[in-house]
Amino acid sequence: MDASAAAANLEWGECLVPLAPVPPALQAEVRSAVGAVPGWLARLAPSPWLVRALCEIIKRPFAHAPLEVCDLVTLVVSQENSCRYCYGVQRAVLKIFGQRDEHIDALVRDAQVSQLTPAARAALDLARRLTRANPRPGGGDFEALVRAGFSRPAAAEIVFAAAANALTNRVGTLLALPPEPLVSFVASPVFRFVRPLLAWRMRRRPRAPEPAPRPDDGPCAEVVAALDGSPAAGVLRRAIDGAWASDVLPRRTKTLMLAVIARALGCAHGEGEARRFLTAEGLAPAELDEILTNLGSRRLDAREARLVPFARETARYQPAAIQRRMRELARGLSPEEVLEAVGIAALANAICRMSVVIDAC
Questions:
Q1: Do 3-201 and 221-359 show the same overall fold?
Q2: What is the CATH number of domain 221-359?
Q3: What is the pTM of this model?
C-alpha cells in the first residue's frame, strides 16, 4: 500500500465539533487571507484566535527559508503525525505544483530522493525528529541545520514550519476534521487540465523580512524574538497573545497545560515560562511539581483535573486513540471549551518544539 492509500485508510472518526454560524466579517477576513473559505471555518468559527492562527500559518510566513523546503517539511510532519486531514491537503498542494505521486511517496517513506540537496535532507531529518520528540532535539541539532547550509534565519523558519505543523496537525486530528474537497478533486480526471491554472493562482513568493513585534512582552517572548527578521515572529506572537487573551478557559488553566506539555517534551523554556506565571498566580513551586509529577492535585478545579492529563497525552499519540480520548473529554464541555482546549494543547506543542532555536543561543 502506498503512502497516500495508507493515509486515506487511517481510522478517522466523525468530526468532534458541530458546524457553527460564521460571522460575515470573519468569513471575509479568512477569504482575504487565504483566497478561499476552507471547510474547517464553520467548525472553528467559535474560536477566532485559532482561526486567525491557522490562516497565518497557511499563508507561509517565510522570508528566508526556501518555500519548496518548507512545503516538504509540512508534508513529512503531517505524515509523521498521521494527520489524515493535513496530509491530504498538503499532498494535493504538491500535486498542484507538479509533484508526481512517486516522488511524494518516496519523500514520506524517508527514501533517498535524488533531487533533494543535502541541506534539504537535513531539514527533513530535523523536522521528523522534532515531530517525534523522542527525545526532543536540542540546540546542537539546530546548529547542525546551519552547518548544512542554511542561514540562521532560514534555519529558524524551517523549525517554525515543523513546529507550526505540530499545531495544525493536532487541530486536524484531535477534532477529526473532514477532508477538504481539494483532496478528492486532484484525483479527478479534469484535474490534469486545470492544474496549470491552479498552480498559477496559488503561486507563492517569499515574504519580505519583518522585525519581531515590539513590544514582545507576552508569554514565551524569547522564542518569538529568536524569529526576528521573519514574518513568522509576528504570527507566533499574535497566536500566543490571542490564545492567552481568550476568556473561554482561564489563563491559569492554559498555563498548566503548557507546563505539562513542556515537561513531557523536555522543554525547559516552556516549563520555566509556565512556572513564572503560575507562581504569580499563587501556585507554590511544590504544588506545581505535584501536578507535573502526578497529573493531578487538590489545587486543580474540576475542569483542570480533566484537561491536565489530556494535555500530557497530546505530546505523542496515535490518531484513533487520541480521537477516542477527545470524545471522552468533550462530554460536559461546550464546543467553545473543546476548541480552546485543543487550540491551547496544539499551540503549546508548537512552542515547545520551536524553542530549540533558543537552546542554540
A1: yes
A2: 1.20.1290.10
A3: 0.93
Q: Which cell numbers hold the place of 245?
A: 487573551
Domain ranges for the chain, please list them.
3-201, 221-359
**Residue 252, pLDDT above cutoff 50:** yes
Q: Is the Cα dihedral 147, 265, 116, 154 positive or negative? A: negative
Nearest Cα neighbor of 206 from 142, 151, 129 is 151
pLDDT single digits (tens) 125-167:
999 999 999 999 999 999 999 999 999 999 999 999 999 999 9
6, pLDDT greater than 90: no
Residue 229 DSSP symbol: B
* DSSP string for residues in 142-206: HHHHHHTT--HHHHHHHHHHHHHHHHHHHHHHHTTPPPPHHHHHTTSTTHHHHHHHHHHHT---P
Residue-level pLDDT at 5: 46
pLDDT, tens digit, 9 for 90 and up, residues 184-197: 888 898 988 888 88
- CATH ID of 3-201, from 3.40.50.1820, 1.20.1290.10, 3.10.180.10, 2.40.128.260: 1.20.1290.10
Distance CA 182, CA 203 (A): 16
Distance, in Å, from the CA atom of 81 to the CA atom of 18, rounded to the nearest integer, reads: 24
CB of 111 closer than 8 Å to CB of 203: no
Beta-bridge partners for 146: none
pLDDT tens track for 105-120:
887 776 556 578 899 9
Q: How far apart are CA 264 and CA 266, in angstroms?
A: 6
Asked if residues 344 and 352 have their Cβ atoms less than 8 Å apart, the reply is: no
Separation between Cα atoms, residue 115 and residue 117, nearest integer Å: 7
Cβ atoms of 55 and 34 closer than 8 Å: yes
Query: Is residue 3 scored above 80 in pLDDT?
Result: no
Residue count of the chain: 361
